[in-house]
Amino acid sequence: LIGLSSAAQVTLGRGEFGQYFSINMGFGIGVTLGMHAAGGISGAHLNAAITLTHCLLGSLSWKKFPFYVLGQFLGSFLAAATVFGIYYEALYDYTKGNFTVTGPNATAGIFSTYPAPYMSLTGGFLVEVIATMMLFLGILVIHDEKNNAALKGTQALLTGILVLGIGLSMGMTTGYSMNPSRDLPPRVFTAIAGWGVDVFTAGQGWWWIPLVAPPLGCLFGVLIHKLFIDLHNQPVLENENEKRQPGMEVS
């Protein structure tokens, strides 16, 4: 809701009420608040690709998968509908009632991601894989208790900063979806709300990339974390004993 609203404000305000940085901040803050809201309830599963990866790794029951994804999709769809309601009059004024996916007054990009005109499907797919790989790798590092885990209570903030950093560094070409739950439900909403089937045909049929690339990126993130970090981690007790040893010797 906060992320899409920030995109709406920047687009419909014609740059007078924020810039690209504002959108990145909006999504970072939204992720932080979402993790605080749902962290203790469900582990804050906000991303279908990450939920799927946890199921594949055996750290989440497959029985929970459809309910988690349904919750993600429903929340995202309702967020898009809410933003549409909040900014309906601004949308109408900006477009004169002609909701388009491409062109100088295109507004579909407020709700879902679309590639830059110069991007190929192959290039866009690679960008989304790498961006999602960095997202999940960063999340694993932040929560890695055997390594240099974040201080308790700061994980949500750091994850929001991580999303901000990815947006600032990799968002130009594809909009850094990284999340099927963030992209598909608003796309379906826009198809219903007046943008039509163009939301599925634009960008050479881009719509399937944010569904397929993020799970693959998550798997690469797990692989990198396992090979280059987790296999070299020392047991938690051993680390704690080493940290305490100098103090004990002085005592």
Automatic annotation (TrEMBL):
<feature type="transmembrane region" description="Helical">
    <location>
        <begin position="205"/>
        <end position="224"/>
    </location>
</feature>
<dbReference type="GO" id="GO:0016323">
    <property type="term" value="C:basolateral plasma membrane"/>
</dbReference>
<feature type="transmembrane region" description="Helical">
    <location>
        <begin position="121"/>
        <end position="142"/>
    </location>
</feature>
<dbReference type="GO" id="GO:0015250">
    <property type="term" value="F:water channel activity"/>
</dbReference>
<dbReference type="InterPro" id="IPR023271">
    <property type="entry name" value="Aquaporin-like"/>
</dbReference>
<keyword id="KW-0812">Transmembrane</keyword>
<feature type="transmembrane region" description="Helical">
    <location>
        <begin position="154"/>
        <end position="176"/>
    </location>
</feature>
<protein>
    <submittedName>
        <fullName>AQP7 protein</fullName>
    </submittedName>
</protein>
<keyword id="KW-0472">Membrane</keyword>
<dbReference type="GO" id="GO:0015254">
    <property type="term" value="F:glycerol channel activity"/>
</dbReference>
<dbReference type="InterPro" id="IPR000425">
    <property type="entry name" value="MIP"/>
</dbReference>
<dbReference type="Pfam" id="PF00230">
    <property type="entry name" value="MIP"/>
</dbReference>
<feature type="transmembrane region" description="Helical">
    <location>
        <begin position="67"/>
        <end position="88"/>
    </location>
</feature>
<keyword id="KW-0813">Transport</keyword>
<dbReference type="InterPro" id="IPR050363">
    <property type="entry name" value="MIP/Aquaporin"/>
</dbReference>
<comment type="similarity">
    <text>Belongs to the MIP/aquaporin (TC 1.A.8) family.</text>
</comment>
<dbReference type="GO" id="GO:0015204">
    <property type="term" value="F:urea transmembrane transporter activity"/>
</dbReference>
<keyword id="KW-1133">Transmembrane helix</keyword>
